[in-house]
Amino acid sequence: MATTLPVSSGIVARYVPGESTAEVIETVASLQAHGLRTSVDHLGEDTLDLDQAEATVRAYEEVLAASAEHGLAADGEVSVKLTAVGLALADGERVALENARRICRAARNAGSVVTIDMEDHTTTDVTLEIVQALRADFPDTGAVIQAYLHRSEDDCRALAVAGSRVRLCKGAYAEPETVAYTDRHQVDLAYVRCLRVLMQGGGHPMVATHDPRMVAIGTALARAAGRAPGSYEFQMLYGIRPQEQRRLVSEGETMRVYVPYGHEWYGYLMRRLAERPQNLSLFVKSLVAK
Ligand code: FAD
Predict the structure, then answer these.
(1) Which residue numbers delimit the Proline dehydrogenase domain (predicted)?
(2) Which of 59, 83, 257, 274 is 20 to 30 A distant from 116 in Cα terms?
């Protein structure tokens, strides 16, 4: 869904630094100049239009080529939602896999890598299958596990193997109790259980959270597992706890910032507002000020 509220509006700009390739490249350059790594997300999801899926692939190809041109590819990666590249279409699994392959190829040519975002629970199995298929040709392709799903500790065990990059997040979708923990405390406990599995395993854990307790536990579990700096990383979203992002870098940790860009910011912004309802009033003010 594209909306007409300009991305320059206060609350949107806090989470989405721009709409164009040039704007996101400028943001990535500025973050990397401060020692942060980056993951660029071309906003959009749930497309039912083959041309739109094609446009998304081209946008990734363009941003990856621009990253290489500006020397930003090695410390950058891209994050891709499979429903943005065709998963919801008829024959969606084949279309999404083929489109994701093209993005992985562009990333390899640029000297960069791809992580496949995780969406709502109806897509978990197919997303993990597609990541596995991509990893046959592009072994650096990252997976995402959402701690709130009951199944996730098992998924972490399966993925905690040498060469595997796994981002652990709490989970951002409104899921039913039949498949997910809905109590915040239960989600936090599940996050720690999953993190322990990943830190003790052979892969590269990517600890995606703004929660100070999870960051502290992540550091402690990495030490307990005898992990060297760089054998795991922290990740946060653009615009959330920027000072903490830099503090972790100054302490020698690897920190990657997820940078979304593009016109289709509505679904992304709504998930951020749901996590932080006090920001809703800022959003309403942006609409009124328009
Ligand atoms: P919370 O308990 O929600 O928040 C902890 C603290 O962080 C809060 O007290 C507050 O201080 C701060 N904070 C959190 N959210 C906000 C906000 N919106 N605005 C301001 N402050 C805030 N989810 C998916 O389902 N699939 C994905 O592929 C995915 N990829 C992600 C990639 C990255 C790099 C990150 C950081 C998150 C990703 N998420 C993804 C979102 C994630 O699942 C959570 O919804 C989100 O990170 C909030 O959870 P939290 O761990 O920060 O903890």
Answers:
(1) 25-280
(2) 274
pLDDT in tens, the chain (290 residues): 444 556 656 788 889 999 999 999 999 999 999 999 999 999 999 999 999 999 999 999 999 999 999 999 999 999 999 999 999 999 999 999 999 999 999 999 999 999 999 999 999 999 999 999 999 999 999 999 999 999 999 999 999 999 999 999 999 999 999 999 999 999 999 999 999 999 999 999 999 999 999 999 999 999 999 999 899 999 999 999 999 999 999 999 999 999 999 999 988 988 998 888 777 666 666 555 54
Q: Tell how far the Cα of 182 is from the centroid of ligand 1, in angstroms.
A: 15
> Which sequence spans correspond to the domains of the chain?
10-283
* Angle in degrees, CA 172, 176, 178, rounded to 5: 125
Cα(90) to centroid(ligand 1), Å: 31
Q: What is the CATH number of domain 10-283?
A: 3.20.20.220
Q: What does the DSSP 8-state code read for residue 228?
A: P
DSSP state string for 100-111: HHHHHHHHHHHT
Count of positions (residues) in the chain: 290
Cα–Cα distance for residue pair 235/208, rounded to 1 Å = 4
